[in-house]
Amino acid sequence: MRVTIDAVLMGRVAPLGPTGKPSGIDKSASSGPVRIGFEGLDGDERADRRHHGGPEKAVHHYPLDHAPAWRADLPGAPALVERPGAFGENLSTHGLTEADICVGDLWRAGTALLQVSQARQPCWKLNARFGVPDMAVRVQKTGRTGWYYRIIETGTVGAGDDLVLVERAHPDWPLSRLLRVFYVDRLDRAALAEIAALPSLSTSWRTLAARRLDKGLVEDWKPRLQGNASSA
Q1: Domain limits at 79?
Q2: How many degrees, rounded to 5, is the angle at CA 132 between CA 52 and CA 7?
């Protein structure tokens, strides 16, 4: 499996939306190769280091394949929705979606080696980004979330480079299935037990699955989706 990387994007922290809260979600495409370190792309900033970035969420990938569906769902949305970087991603491609990506996949991006660590958990910053009050909810309900990588080998990546699947350890766990368990079949105990034991999944998502198994309850999403907290 191979696709071409259409854009590599980074952003500086800047005020976002009417409240002016700091965010690095507004990203621009690089004109040349960019180094990928264990914390992400050189020059890419995060305002909230507690919930954004770090080794498990070093690089965010969002498929431009979703743009037509967003335009159909949100005819009044800004043209931003159809551009690379709209969702604050670092890598933009055509040809891969959450149905094609599995937990733990190893992908060669330029000279770097990336591993899929989790899907994105959308947060309220998407509402401010698009001027759509329930955008984060829409992203979660549709499963058009994008995903994160951890870095296995540092290197450089640029637009036009290939993104090549190197190894697939968990073919039974595409991100589309993972998202369905977390957001639709939320207390499927058998599936949650499998998720909690997936070694390549981020620690936070394995912990979340284990907590649901233990408590038999689904966590409150409102702070993340509506404001005051974020897990994006």
Answers
A1: 2-169
A2: 50
